[in-house]
Each structure stands twice: as C-alpha cells, then as structure tokens.
Design a protein that fits this description.
With 503 residues, the chain is α/β, with parallel strands linked by helices. It has 17 helices and 13 strands. It has a 6-stranded mixed beta sheet with strand order 4-5-13-10-11-12, sandwiched between helices. A 4-stranded parallel beta sheet has the order 8-7-6-9, sandwiched between helices. The longest helix has 19 residues.
Amino acid sequence: MKLEQFPPDLQPYLVPAPGGALAYRCLGCERIFAIDRLLYTCPRCGEVLLIVDQAFERLTRLPPETWRRIFDYRKMLPQASLRGIYRYHEFIGPVLPLEHVVYLGEGHTPMIAASGVLQEFVGMSFYFKNEGQNPSASFKDRGMASAFSYLNHLMASGRLRDVLAVCASTGDTSAAAALYAAYLQPRIKSAVLLPHGKVTPQQLSQPLGSGARVFEIPGVFDDCMKVVEHLSEHFPVALLNSKNPWRILGQESYSYEIAQDFEYDLTDKVIVVPIGNAGNITAILNGFLKFRAIGIITELPKIIGVQSRHANPVYRYYRQPEGSRRVFAPVDVQPSVAQAAMIGNPVSMPRVIHLVKRYNQQSGRSNVYFVDVREQEIMDWQLIANRHGHIACTHGGECLAGLMAARQAGHIRTNEVAVLDATAHALKFSGFQDMYFQNRIPDEYEVVPKAELMNAPVLIRPDSLEAVPEPGRPLSGEPLERFVRQTASAIAVALGLETPRQA
C-alpha cells in the first residue's frame, strides 16, 4: 500500500523520522554517557550498560490504541527498513535514520501452535516461536541488525571509519555477526573466536562461508569471551557479543512481536526462554516493560528462564528465596547439547538482576521464575517436539523441558498459554540427533537414548534380486520391473500393509 492510502490520522506517524535521546546508562554507578562512541562497559566503574531513551516520555503523547494501530498498519508498508525489527523504531533505535537501517530479513518469525496431540501430552496450550527462520537461522540476527545498523549510522555520519567486528561464540553469534559484516563489506570486516571442538560443523560452516576470520581456541565460551573482552579494551575493534547494549535493543523486538501477535493482550501468557549469556532474557524483560510503560500492553506476561544443570549459575542465584542473601557465583560448565547454554559466567547477569527486580515490582507479584533441567530431558523433549511436526533446536527442547519443570514446580497454571523460544534452526544441531539415534553420545553429556525415540534408515535390497540399479547403470525391461515389484513388496511387509488386491 502507498502511504496516502492509509488512514489520514496515522499517515504522519507511519514512516518515523529520527528522534529520541538515547544514552548509555551504567547499572553500577548509574552514570550516563553519550552514544556517539562505542561503549560496552562503564568507563568509570566497569559495570555493564543499558541503552535508555532520556526522552522516552514523549511516546506517551500518543494514546496506546494509536500505537497499536501504527504497528499494525506498518505491517503493510513496502519500505524494507520497517519490515524487520524497526517496525518498532521508536522503541528500538529512534535516533537512526531509516536509510541507515540494515535489513536482511530478520524478525517477525512465526509462532506455531503445538500440535493438538503434543498439547494434550504436555497438558496445556503452547506455541514455538521459530527463531530459526531468521536469515542466519537464529535469534541472534535481531541483535545484530540493531548493532550493525548503529555501526552503519556511525560510519555514514563520519564518526567511524573502517570497522573490525569481533565476537566470541558457541556458534549462532558468530554466524550472525559474520553475515551482517559481510553485507557491509568492505567497510566492515569480522573475526570470530570459537571454543575448539565445541561448535557443530553446521554452525562452523556459517562464518567461514561469510568470509570471516575464524579462530578456535582451547577452553569453553567463557574463555573466548575473556579474550574478545581484552581485544575490545586494548584494540580498535567493535565487540558484537551481548555485552554490546545495542544487541539488547534489537532483541527486544521478540517481546514486541509476541505482544502484537496476541493482539496486545498478554493476560495469562507465559514466555519460556533459555538463558545462555543472559542477553535474550534481558531484552525480553526490558521490551515488555517498555510496552507496558506506554500502555500498549496492560499485563506483563510471566517469564520462565531455563538453564541446563551443566551450566546453571542464574538458577542457583535465584534458588535463594531471600534477595538480600543472594550471591552470584560463576560455575564451571559441563558439555551441553544446548551448546549456547554452556556459559558459566553470563555477561548480562547484572542486567538480569536489575530487570527482574523491576519486572516483579511492575507486575505487583513474583512474575519471573528460573528452572534447571537435565541434558536427558533437553534431548528427549526436542525429539518429542519434532516428532509432532516442529523444527525445535536443542534450545527449543530445553524450553519444553523447562515448561514441564516449571509446571511441576507450580510456577505455571494449566489455563495459561506459553510461548517457547526455539532459538535456532534444528538443522544446526542435527549432529546431536544423529548421535542420539546411533547411541554414541559421549558420556559427559549424561544422555542415554530411549529406544522409542531412536530412528534409523533401513536398507531394502531383496536377496533374490540378481541385479539392482546403480549410478550410471540403470535397469530396464524385466529386470527393472522385477526390482520395483520385489522392493515394493518388501517395503509393504516392513510397513505392515495388507496384501494388495488382485487386478
């Protein structure tokens, strides 16, 4: 639709101009810093930052119903810069001119209702939000679209020249960073650090294919993170991990999309999200808080954060019921099939503590809960979900296992409706499925395949056949007819099909 075809009262707002007054705010000393340079931690006290809009109150000049109509009508605009996460421009990056927005197709991933049989099996209604349908096949593209749009803005406005973007990763972050950097080359180049042997072949192939410099180092993600932090502190590089507060802004779009998909009614809704480096749960909390502050939503949904028992520092922190007695302690991680879960010291933990407190206060009750789940449960529930028509990754399996754990703990009622974060495409983690089916998952994962969930191909080659087709040597005539007839008969027997009717 052309702009002049939209309701006249909305036309002035549908294509936003730059506005707002964004700034970095330290969560430690609460100092404010300008955004005209790249910052990842507070220059004064070293604590992590959040980006705040010091002119946020201006958004209250429009009534909530008008904001809902703006977002709903923007869905019909042909402008690429408003088709992704910047449909919510005023809440994510209002200072950015639309011509500086980088859009590769990220955002607005579908919420797929669990099949009827699976919902009955689980005992409640729920959806998977398929983040694997983002361009690099994970939710990381939301934050990268924001971070790279800001870098693009700094370069276009002459405040930044050529950029080397760096990140530590368990797989998905490196794929997303390399993809967006490749789109903006030659002005931006990328380098990624991966823990040696801890990334699936599918995920490793992505940054290599995008032309990034890929470095594998000993250890786990936490060790990679220490190295890139050192690089960002001592060399002129742009850090693209979730320590970068622009990443958090982009990932807030996940919250806004869920609100819009439920027509802004989040009563009795539950959002289940894996924690990993804690950037995503941070963004989700902050996004819902912003929408509620303007009145776009009137209820804050329940949030369930899930961790593997092989890396559960956030769960352990909140396991202590008395806030004054909580002490955060990093943990040594063990191998996890949900590889992004293998983080023992999440960089966004200070943001989590800050925002969980605010979220519960604004809810008027405890509305954020944390659970941990076994690796066995992660794999089993992933396979169960996908056997019922879904494309859940291991982190989607982690969320479904977390949903069951939260129900068992009494955090969720059966009349509530849950949205589970399937953070990446299932094909990225197909190697774990193959190892499960072949019963060769290493012992340290603590996963024992269940016979009823295993699957394997069956070779059909009847012994009575003298000849079978081969590449470059096809059959014809009677040998082909014999091959087709006997092979079909053997498959029919294997499937338990009845004897065919006589012609």
